[in-house]
Automatic annotation (TrEMBL):
The chain crosses the membrane at residues 15-37, 72-91, 111-129, 141-158, 170-187, 199-221, 233-251. Signal peptide: none annotated. This is Uncharacterized protein. It comes from Fusicatenibacter saccharivorans. Keywords: Coiled coil, Membrane, Transmembrane, Transmembrane helix. Residues 38-65 form a coiled coil. The keyword Transcription regulation does not apply.
């Protein structure tokens, strides 16, 4: 069975076609985002009468475009990191019955360690895989909070569409993390409102990300590249790996920078 999975997922034809679809989907998503941004700046420039003011607004617009694109990348990286460790959690829970005695005792601790490790992995991806230079720490924090909502959506989808009750505990765990991000021991109204503002600003990214990953996963399951037999959560993680590769390839072409400069 293991040999079957290896041959299936490393078949050049399967890998090539799925990567192409992931890349095309990414290009379509970013093209839509940049088109909306272009329409917004054109409307704003009409309101400006001085040429100097127009140049300043264009520079601000370019920076904002970079921030939106990099926020989307950060959301993909964060989602991948969390899904990696959730996949490991799933494998240990479902495929390693020989350690069940220890697993039942320490699984909550292991899950906490996995979540912490996912944060470090995300930080590594947004520096080594694609260096994100236009996002400040506060913006990254807001995007990573959105990624928790994104993971909850994935788990809810698996829970109700596939009627898999094994994820009930994980859903509750991530919802608790989300609430804790808003209401911690020494929170203030100001900090709560700032966190809420960051969430609202990035909600469109959550919608776009859900549509993009939903399409990639649907295609993967539809053509038989992603397999339900090895776990939906694991297949979803594999889809995100291809999304990461698409971001890396598109970044290396530097096409996006030229497009943003032209807008």
């Amino acid at each position: 069975m293991k040999r079957y999975y290896i041959l299936h997922y490393f078949d050049p034809a399967n890998v090539g076609s799925f990567l192409l679809v992931s890349l095309l989907g990414l290009i379509l998503v970013l093209a839509l985002v940049l088109l909306i941004a272009k329409l917004q700046i054109q409307r704003q420039l009409k309101e400006e009468t001085e040429e100097k003011a127009k140049k300043i607004r264009r520079k601000k617009h370019q920076r904002r475009q970079y921030q939106i694109v990099e926020s989307f990348y950060e959301l993909v990286f964060s989602g991948t990191s969390i899904l990696l460790f959730l996949s490991l959690y799933y494998i240990i829970d479902e495929r390693l019955p020989q350690i069940s005695m220890y697993w039942e005792k320490y699984q909550d601790v292991v899950l906490l360690v996995f979540i912490v490790l996912s944060v470090f992995l995300t930080s590594w991806l947004d520096v080594v895989l694609v260096k994100l230079t236009h996002l400040d720490p506060e913006q990254k924090a807001s995007v990573r909070l959105i990624s928790v909502f994104y993971i909850v959506l994935i788990l809810l989808y698996i829970r109700f569409i596939y009627e898999d009750t094994n994820y009930d505990g994980l859903i509750l765990y991530f919802l608790t993390l989300t609430v804790g991000r808003f209401l911690y021991f020494d929170f203030t109204v100001k900090s709560f409102l700032e966190t809420m503002r960051g969430v609202l600003e990035n909600l469109p990214l959550l919608v776009i990300m859900s549509a993009y990953s939903g399409f990639v996963c649907w295609y993967g399951f539809h053509v038989g590249f992603l397999l339900k037999s090895n776990g939906v959560i694991l297949s979803t993680f594999l889809a995100h790996l291809f999304m990461d590769c698409s971001i890396f390839l598109l970044h290396k072409t530097r096409i996006l920078k030229h497009v943003i400069r032209k807008i």
